[in-house]
Design brief:
2 domains; 13 helices; Rossmann fold; 13% strand; 6-phosphogluconate dehydrogenase C-terminal fold; 302 residues; alpha/beta; 6-stranded parallel sheet; 3-stranded mixed sheet; binds NADP nicotinamide-adenine-dinucleotide phosphate
């Protein structure tokens, strides 16, 4: 008679998970998977020897390699967690080594371009479920991995029309076991929502900090000295990974340009209120924006 499964064995969802890219998001996922006991073994493939060494030393993964084929061989889940501009080449390189039934997922901050880059390489019998956790910090690399990064945060899945319901349900369960709430939406909707909630705010932060950096030397000293008056919060956002953000703006160009057009018009409106000394209009606007912050706190997303 087969032995009854222990509680821990029942929790395991994947025997072998392969991460391509073990930076901030990849290592946070690996730690969250371990915390939930959903995986037996984890291998990471990363081009950075420093990151491979750190991921092993910190016991985030069991094995590391620089070889894509070795990483995905025998894996039943493959997570692509590198800047989105690398995804087509990675999908092409791993494709011949994926076994039938494997689930491939990703964490890219833009979905339409990523799907177009990865999908053509996915072999028959392998399932691709595009995903994006709406969580992260300005830090990079495996040292920035946090087991609780996704707790109470949203993970958005943008399934393809042909994604079997069972496969989508499995990836959804995985994110829930990693602590996240899960939503599904179309890739186009995802890219528009993220253009306003993430990409535009980052663009503003990069620009504000860039403007301050270009100021005359004497003023620059004071910008740093008195940064707590607002500037500091922008510098945290503007310290995010340059390569990752270069790829995001290139990949979500249309949605970002559309939102930017609206933003520029609204900014010109604010300029007009200030020039005309229209205090009532300014106060009305700031009252509306304050309410948004309260809503975020109430939704526990602060
Ligand atoms: P990260 O900390 O820089 O980690 C990425 C890792 O992938 C680095 O170790 C990098 O090595 C490696 N890598 C780059 N190109 C590679 C390639 N072709 N083959 C193998 N490894 C490669 O970045 P991250 O913050 O984890 O971001 C990864 C992905 O998550 C991005 O697509 C981003 O859009 C998405 N995301 C990020 C956040 C966030 O807040 N950070 C949130 C949600 C989603 P090198 O250091 O040598 O380049």
């Amino acid at each position: 008679m087969p032995k009854a499964k222990t509680k821990a064995q029942k929790a395991v969802m994947f025997d072998r998970v392969a991460f391509i890219g073990i930076g901030h998001i990849g290592s946070s996922m690996a730690l969250a998977m371990r915390r939930a006991g959903v995986v037996e073994s984890i291998i990471a493939c990363d081009r950075s020897a420093k990151h491979r060494k750190a991921a092993l030393k910190l016991k985030i993964v069991d094995e590391v390699t620089a070889d894509y084929a070795k990483a995905v061989k025998g894996a039943d889940l493959v997570v692509i967690a590198t800047p989105v501009g690398t995804n087509a080449a990675i999908a092409k390189a791993i494709a011949p080594h994926l076994k039938p039934g494997t689930i491939v997922t990703d964490v890219g901050s833009v979905k339409q371009v990523v799907i177009a880059a990865i999908t053509p390489h996915i072999p028959k019998g392998v399932y691709f479920v595009p995903g994006h956790p709406l969580a992260g910090t300005e830090h990079s690399g495996p040292e920035a991995g946090l087991a609780d990064l996704f707790d109470g945060r949203w993970a958005v899945l943008t399934p393809l029309p042909r994604t079997p319901a069972k496969v989508l349900a499995k990836v959804s369960t995985l994110w829930k076991r990693m602590g996240a709430n899960v939503d599904t939406m179309t890739p186009a909707h995802h890219d528009r929502v993220l253009a306003i909630t993430s990409h535009l705010p980052h663009l503003c932060a990069f620009t504000v900090v860039g403007t301050a950096t270009d100021l005359a030397e004497d003023l620059k000293q004071e910008v740093i000295k008195y940064s707590a008056s607002g500037f500091r919060d922008f510098t945290r956002v503007a310290a995010s990974d340059p390569v990752m953000w270069r790829d995001i703006f290139l990949a979500n160009r249309e949605a970002v340009l559309e939102i930017l057009q609206r933003f520029t018009e609204d900014l010109a409106g604010m300029q007009k209120h200030i020039r005309r000394g229209d205090g009532a209009a300014l106060e009305k606007m700031f009252t509306r924006t304050r309410a948004i912050r309260r809503g975020i706190i109430e939704a526990k997303q602060a």
